[in-house]
From TrEMBL:
Entry annotated with the keyword rRNA-binding: no
Transmembrane segments: 12-32, 66-96, 131-149, 161-181, 187-210, 217-240, 264-288
Pfam families: DUF898
Keyword entries, A-Z: Membrane, Transmembrane, Transmembrane helix
Domain of life of the source: Bacteria
Name assigned to this protein: DUF898 domain-containing protein
């Protein structure tokens, strides 16, 4: 896979979207999302063909209006009763899993490759499990079940996604997710130890210059915290790189399978340089940073096709027929998942 767009092209879209969203008090944000997704989809190439996005801005605006009304009702409920916010909070908890499921359906039903639509067939029961029960279990166990909950979510997401009539499959077990989480946690602990040692070394080194007053302690603390913050920037890229490789190396589409080879160190260097660019330009480098990160992550993904994709897509198109377009009308809601 490869991304053919450029940061300068996306910057023009990004700045216009931002300005119009501000002028229209956020109403244009639905149209901005469609323009953005269409740009990224249409510049993502696989085997000489590109993807496309067909979502309607009004459907996205409707989904955001629903969320806004729910949030306003929750915030105003406290003015009338002490118990009403609790009841509305419970209602929101029960409503959001089906909304998230419909948002997944909307996104995939409006995504296509070579004219053939994707689809998401997951039901509300599975949505309640991955969006409600597993997060509650994770909180109850103080995060111990987070890798298992993550594995269940990716399994639910991938195994209920299809391209045409061919379903995706997901074979990664919970143990592999625990491996990624534990390695990330060990890396975090190592950074804490390194930061503490750096603080001690800095304190000892400054002792001869500043004596043993409060200035030395404050400066040593500030430098050690700063060193820890810079080092901790590696945690996010490391986790995302390992996670992308884990998920896509265990994903198949019919007879075809995927391979992902994101380098954690290279991705960290990319993220760090993006952060420097964003800080130095007061945020104006953000569109370029997004394009750079996406280009690298897509370039690391390969579809190991079991045969020519032309014949695969043609055969699927004959089986799907006109049902794909009709199904989209049933899922016209998006809550910006």
């Amino acid at each position: 896979m490869r991304f053919t767009g450029s940061g300068s092209e996306y910057f023009r879209i990004w700045i216009v979207n931002a300005l119009l969203s501000v002028v229209t008090l956020g109403i244009y944000s639905a149209w901005a999302k469609v323009r953005t997704l269409q740009y990224f989809y249409r510049n993502t190439e696989l085997d000489g063909a590109t993807f496309d996005y067909h979502g309607r801005p009004l459907a996205i605006l409707k989904g955001r209006a629903i969320v806004l009304v729910l949030m306003l009702a929750f915030n105003m409920a406290g003015q009338f009763s002490v118990w009403l916010p609790l009841l509305l909070g419970l209602a929101l908890v029960l409503v959001f899993p089906p909304l998230l499921v419909r948002s997944l359906r909307f996104r995939l039903a409006n995504s296509s490759y070579r004219g053939l639509r994707f689809a998401f067939t997951g039901g509300d029961a599975g949505g309640y499990r991955v969006f409600l029960l597993w997060p509650l279990a994770t909180a109850a166990t103080l995060g111990m079940l987070a890798p298992l909950a993550h594995q269940r979510f990716k399994q639910y997401q991938h195994e209920h996604t299809r391209y045409g009539t061919v379903p995706f499959a997901f074979s990664a077990h919970a143990g592999a997710f625990y491996g990624v989480y534990l390695r990330t946690f060990a890396m975090m602990l190592g950074l804490v130890v390194i930061a503490a040692l750096c603080g001690i070394a800095i304190g000892v080194g400054l002792g001869s210059l500043l004596g043993h007053g409060p200035q030395r302690a404050m400066l040593a603390t500030a430098l050690s915290v700063g060193a820890f913050y810079v080092a901790s920037l590696a945690i996010g890229p490391f986790f995302l790189a390992r996670l992308q490789n884990l998920v896509w190396n265990h994903t198949t589409l019919g007879p075809h399978r995927f391979r992902s080879e994101v380098g954690a160190f290279r991705y960290f260097c990319l993220v760090l340089s993006n952060l420097v660019g964003i800080v130095l330009t007061l945020g104006l480098f953000a569109p370029f940073a997004r394009v750079r990160a996406l280009r690298y992550r897509l370039a690391c993904v390969t579809l190991l096709a079991a045969g020519p994709l032309d014949s695969f897509v043609a055969g699927e198109a004959e089986q799907v027929g006109a049902l794909g377009d009709a199904a989209v009308d049933w899922y016209d809601i998006d809550i910006a998942l």
